[in-house]
Design a protein that fits this description.
The complex is a heterodimer of chains A (201) and B (213). Chain A has six helices and nine strands. By secondary structure, chain A is of the alpha/beta class. Chain A folds into two domains: 88 residues, no CATH class; 92 residues, no CATH class. In chain A, helix 2 packs antiparallel against helix 3 and helix 5 packs across helix 6. The two termini of chain A are 41 Å apart. Chain B is α/β, with parallel strands linked by helices and 213 residues long. Chain B has one domain: Alpha-Beta Barrel (TIM Barrel). Chain B is globular. Chain B starts with a helix and ends with a helix. Classes of the chains: A alpha/beta (201), B alpha/beta (213). At the A-B interface, helix 1, helix 2, helix 3, helix 4 and strand 4 of A face helix 2, helix 3, helix 4, strand 6 and helix 5 of B. Strand 6 of chain A pairs parallel with strand 6 of chain B, so a sheet runs across the interface.
């Protein structure tokens, strides 16, 4: 059945208020393990010892299994304890209209992120950084600068500053906001000091 | 999400499937990984999806099982959709150790060959110890990605298999490595000679396995 309009976060919010009620235990301990096991058997999935698949038929079966997992189970909203379901057409609408590329950063430091394929000859984008690791306040800028100084690195992914003005950035305190803003400013400074002020962060 | 969408921002939607978690085994967890990739674009109207299959016992993305999940999920998503996908790096070992660099290399090879668009890392020492990440691990991730690009997939599978064998027995006693302050001259932001030597050693091991830099 065709859908009335494309799915978005607003429609998700509406469905998260009206979907089927379920406990998180039922979702975690019944829905997910039972359905994933059922789909593995239905599609005869066996990866053997390969890290990167060479069997196109098995890949197609895996795609069907993943699609069916989302279609049949939907998404569990932990805030409302309700299940949000999509129709098959809504899922295809999203898949058929994904963003096929975008730019990170500005000026000569900008990089274009483009679709790659299996065995692609083009190097992927390297987003260098602590990736959420804890970083002390006094080391925050040099640590991030060490990534910006590497030519193999295209953009920066941040670490987490453990204190700001010596205080821990406790959630829902003003220090949380100060820490988030300070992180961004220090990383931008680090990239600029490395001679790459337009780096995407 | 409403703010990002209203602001025309680039939206990254992240999820880390857990091998050994609720979904269970390798294939089951990969099914969930595919489903959550797709969901990012239905629910969040994402620009790209950040993946990160992680091992429930070791807290690492570089194990044999999690590399298989990442490789199969990404190759399948690459083959059947236009989704842009990234992966994040959590090796067991800390900076300035050969194990850390080899772990990151195995994942970089898996990601690059399976069609991943963005490599995000490296959160050395599982990303949980203060100041234990440096630019050198990201350099290795990038150099290995460059070397792997365009390689034959069967050859890549063979090298990763041998590469993982070099470190997979050591998860429980993975070397802690050193802090950024111990790995770099902080004033000049330059790696120590010791780290450069460790890096060279790891690179030589990768060359012995068949990777051409």
């Amino acid at each position: 059945m065709t859908f009335s309009r494309s799915m978005d976060c607003f429609e998700f919010y509406e469905r998260a208020k009206k979907g089927t009620k379920m406990s998180q235990d039922d979702w975690d301990l019944m829905t997910i393990p039972m359905k994933s096991m059922e789909l593995k058997q239905k599609y005869n999935l066996d990866f053997k010892n390969e890290f990167i698949p060479t069997d196109k038929d098995m890949m197609e079966n895996l795609f069907k299994a993943g699609f069916e997992m989302l279609l049949d189970c939907g998404i569990f909203c932990t805030d409302t304890s309700r299940v949000v379901k999509y129709t098959e057409d809504e899922i295809w609408d999203a898949l058929n209209n994904v963003q096929k590329g975008f730019t990170l950063g500005t000026g000569r430091d900008a990089v274009n992120v483009k679709k790659r394929s299996v065995g692609d000859k083009r190097k992927p984008i390297v987003q260098g950084g602590p990736t959420g690791s804890p970083i002390s306040e006094n080391m925050f800028m040099p640590v991030h600068m060490s990534y910006a100084l590497e030519k193999e690195v295209d953009t920066i992914v941040n670490g987490v500053m453990m204190t700001v003005r010596g205080k821990p950035p406790i959630p829902k305190s003003p220090y949380e906001i100060l820490a988030a803003k300070t992180e961004t400013r220090l990383i931008k400074n680090a990239a600029a000091m490395a001679g790459r002020p337009g780096m995407g962060i | 999400m409403a703010h990002y969408q209203g602001n025309s921002d680039i939206i990254m939607d992240e999820q880390m499937p857990i091998f050994g978690g609720y979904a269970g085994g390798i294939e089951e967890t990969t099914i969930v990984d595919i489903a959550t990739h797709i969901n990012a674009f239905v629910m969040s109207n994402a620009s790209w999806h950040l993946d990160g299959p992680v091992h429930i016992r070791w807290g690492s993305t570089n194990t044999r099982e999690t590399l298989q999940i990442a490789g199969w999920a990404c190759a399948t998503i690459s083959e059947f959709t236009d989704i842009i996908s990234g992966n994040q790096y959590y090796p067991c070992a800390g900076p300035c150790t050969e194990m850390c660099l080899l772990e990151a290399s195995a994942q970089s090879m898996t990601d690059t060959a399976s069609g991943r668009e963005i490599l995000s890392g490296v959160a050395a020492a599982k990303g949980v110890v203060q100041d234990k990440t440096t630019g050198m691990e990201a350099r290795m991730m990038g150099e290995v990605a460059r070397a792997t690009s365009g390689m034959d997939i069967a050859e890549v599978n063979g090298i990763i298999d041998n590469l993982v064998k070099l470190y997979e027995k050591d998860y429980a006693k993975a070397p802690e490595g050193k802090t950024f302050q111990e790995c770099y001259d902080v004033a000049t932001v330059t790696p120590t000679d010791e780290y450069v030597k460790v890096y060279d050693g790891a690179r030589r091991k990768l060359e012995e396995l068949g990777l051409v830099f």
